[in-house]
Specification:
9 helices, 12 strands
Length: 420
């Protein structure tokens, strides 16, 4: 492990007192354990695909981040819990050394879950002492690293849920992650008509405004020229998407991008991930069912459609006579009067490639690898889902995934060019 590391640069990070930072650290770390609590040791070791990670690995990797990025370089006299963990739980940081292959994380039955939990306790004790006792020189940069680590852990909290949902969906028993809650009370029998909000376009400011924390990919703030456009006031619902299916949406190549149609044929897509058709032998019910964190439930036609790939979102938009918004249109609309469901429901695919903003500079040191090196072959999603930790997102937040990904809580909002 390196013994020194340049400090991270963040955007006007507020400087809370050490006690406040210690409480935030404890809250975030305890929430990860609470999310894992419903899962057995066997659940926490499983890896259902190369793009997902076991729950146990998420718990260990988020501890690795604090150990490798904060404690080892900056805490005098820090003693590692186990030197081998620097290799086992590194994700993709080339500058911090070799790592265990991502597709083989599910093979790590050792260390045990108990050892991983002991590892977290070791790191937490060292971090508590470091936050309380760190010398003033260089503290601002180190504090920024801790804040980055906490936001990093919140990202993994969401991934923990999306990854275990995929794993449980591969089990023929379709077990629930948690006990089912009572169905939401619906005051409306039908989906309210979609309203189109007209925005004038023009020059708008895009990116983080330097007030509080931001990831480097949200910066620098810059001007973008938008043409007049219209955007839907709400998300597309399950009921609306079911109409697309009923109309043969998955059988009409004209609706699909070329790579998307190839995926439909190669992977046999007929509905969003985790939808169970009425004739599925696993669930012989009369109507569509949806598998979620609380098990198999009847499809709620008023709920936002979720678990869509970019290809499916774009095909639906084509079928609906609309398109997906660009990420810049989405951000410009985030404060528009009448706009709803911008966060806390599903991530919303945009028509924007995940590219650097003009003048983008990655963070300094090892965390330079955090975002910038993934700026190719991915599409931007905006908003935040029901599994995103509270307070973690903001209008400038840029999520990104490859266009075929659909195990995330991702849906869509429609847009179109302004009516002449």
């Amino acid at each position: 492990m390196p013994v020194t590391q340049p400090s991270v640069h963040t955007q006007a990070l507020a400087a809370p007192g050490r006690d406040t930072l210690a409480r935030r650290y404890a809250d975030v770390r305890s929430h990860s354990l609470a999310l894992a609590a419903p899962l057995s040791a066997e659940d926490q070791c499983i890896q259902s695909m190369a793009d997902a990670s076991p729950t146990k690995w998420h718990l260990a990797h988020t501890s690795w981040f604090f150990e490798a990025v904060v404690l080892a370089p900056h805490a005098p006299g820090y003693q590692a819990f186990d030197q081998r963990f620097f290799h086992l739980f590194n994700s993709y940081y080339e500058s911090l050394g070799p790592r265990h292959p991502r597709p083989q994380r599910g093979l790590l039955t050792r260390p045990s879950l108990d050892e991983v939990l002991a590892y977290r306790q070791h790191v937490d004790a060292a971090m508590a002492a470091f936050i309380a006792d760190a010398a003033a020189p260089g503290w601002d940069g180190t504090q920024a690293l801790i804040e980055l680590g906490l936001n990093h852990e919140q990202q993994h909290q969401e991934l923990l849920l999306t990854d275990i949902l995929h794993a449980l969906s591969c089990n023929p028993l379709l077990p629930a992650y948690r006990a089912a809650e009572a169905p939401a009370l619906r005051l409306a029998a039908r989906t309210p008509p979609m309203q189109w909000l007209a925005l004038p376009g023009g020059t708008v400011q895009i990116g983080h405004d330097s007030d509080g924390f931001a990831f480097d990919n949200e910066t620098p703030r810059h001007s973008v020229l938008l043409q007049p456009f219209e955007i839907a006031d709400r998300l597309v619902t399950c009921g609306e998407y079911a109409q697309f299916i009923a109309d043969g949406g998955y059988d009409k190549p004209a609706l699909w991008l070329s790579d998307g149609w190839t995926a439909v044929l190669a992977q046999g897509w007929r509905a969003p991930a985790y939808w169970i058709a009425p004739n599925d032998p696993r669930a012989p019910f009369a109507h569509w069912q949806v598998f979620g964190l609380d098990g198999v439930r009847p499809l709620d036609p008023l709920a936002p459609v979720s678990q869509l790939s970019f290809y499916e979102a774009a095909a639906y938009a084509q079928w609906a006579g609309a398109r997906l918004p660009t990420e810049f249109e989405w951000e410009a609309a985030a404060g528009a009067q009448g706009i709803t469901q911008m966060s806390g429901h599903v991530w919303q695919w945009t028509r924007s490639s995940y590219d650097p903003y003009p003048g983008f500079k990655p963070l300094a040191g090892a965390v330079a690898e955090y975002n910038g090196k993934f700026m190719v072959g991915q599409l931007v999603l905006r908003g935040g889902s029901s599994t995103t930790p509270a307070g973690h997102t903001r209008p400038s937040y840029r999520n990104f995934f490859p266009p075929g990904a659909r195990w995330q809580f991702s849906g869509l909002r429609l847009a179109k060019d302004a009516t002449c």
